[in-house]
Design a protein that fits this description.
Blueprint (H helix, E strand, L loop, with lengths): L6 E12 L2 E12 L3 E5 L6 H9 L6 E6 L2 E2 L5 H6 L2 E4 L11 H7 L9 H7 L1 H5 L10 H14 L4 E5 L7 H16 L3 E5 L3 H7 L2 E6 L2 E7 H6 L1 H8 L5
Parallel strand pairs: 3-8, 3-9, 6-7, 7-8
Antiparallel strand pairs: 1-2, 1-4, 4-5, 9-10
Helix pairs in contact: 3-6
Bound molecules: adenosine-5'-triphosphate and magnesium ion.
The site of adenosine-5'-triphosphate (ATP) has 11 residues, from β2 and α1.
Length: 239
């Protein structure tokens, strides 16, 4: 947690409701330039809602979301995306009747440093499968496609909701390596993921959310060593 780091994202006292249900009750967090931060918490804690509120898929009821210095809270999702915030949601939004390459080209922006060849270099499986329909892909390949398409959209902040959920261990390893490559290229990443092993392999810092508020923040080293916190908030860690 070096104070010298520039924040690309600053979330301040964010509140969100579904109808009368007050789900986010003042979430505050930051993501630095090129930093990988996780948001952890039990089922129903408000992780996906936080991601959606940042990306504009849910309209926050109060609070601030500052991205590269500008307040984006309440902007429509497409305008937030244009600024460089890309959410890869849990259900990956792959078009089943389009080919892999057509799915990727939907994300294309001419000025993006990430063009088709770059995506195929990181995800060789997508190159092999480029003429296949999106519906013919395995779950892991669909996830790679969703991440690849988001990259073509030139994200400065990539937001991932449970990218390896339900995937086989070898595929999980592949995706972890790919995320490391993307991070090394300087893209900031905000990650929600239940697989703690994946989280500690990738992250610089972690937040834990409980009932719509952040209850804990730690650097990766401290988090790994803190079995009590993992047990208290996540129900794991009593090794
Ligand atoms: N569209 C919705 N309408 C009403 N309530 C919702 C909606 N989406 C989520 N909720 C409720 O809001 C709370 C937070 O949900 P959210 O999806 O943000 O949790 P989460 O931390 O992502 O959980 P999970 O680990 O199960 O993905 C939960 O109580 C959930 O039931
Ligand atoms: Mg969720």
């Amino acid at each position: 947690m070096s104070g010298a780091r520039n924040n690309i994202l600053e979330v301040e006292k964010l509140h969100a409701h579904y109808g009368k249900s007050h789900v986010l009750q003042g979430v505050s967090m930051t993501v630095g330039e090129a930093e990988l931060v996780t948001l952890l918490g039990r089922n129903g804690a408000g992780k996906s809602t936080t991601l959606k509120s940042i990306a504009g898929a849910v309209t926050p009821t109060s609070g601030r979301v500052r991205f590269q210095g500008a307040d984006i809270a309440g902007m429509p999702a497409h305008r937030i995306a244009t600024r460089g915030v890309c959410l890869v949601p849990e259900h990956r939004g792959i078009f089943k009747l389009l080919t892999v390459e057509e799915n990727l080209l939907l994300g294309l922006r001419r000025q993006s440093p990430w063009q088709l060849d770059d995506i195929y270099r990181i995800f060789p499986r997508l190159k092999e499968r480029r003429r296949n329909g999106g519906g013919q892909l395995s779950g892991g390949e669909q996830q790679m496609l969703a991440i690849g398409r988001a990259l073509m959209n030139h994200p400065r902040l990539l937001i991932l909701d449970e990218p390896v959920e339900g995937l086989a261990p070898v595929i999980v390893e592949e995706i972890v390596a790919q995320l490391k490559t993307i991070k090394a290229a300087g893209v900031a990443i905000l990650l929600v993921e239940q697989n703690l092993e994946v989280c500690v392999q990738l992250a610089d810092r972690h937040y834990i959310v409980e009932q719509g508020v952040i209850v804990h923040e730690a650097g990766n080293e401290a988090f790994m060593a803190d079995h009590e916190v993992k047990d208290r908030y996540l129900g794991v860690g009593l090794a």
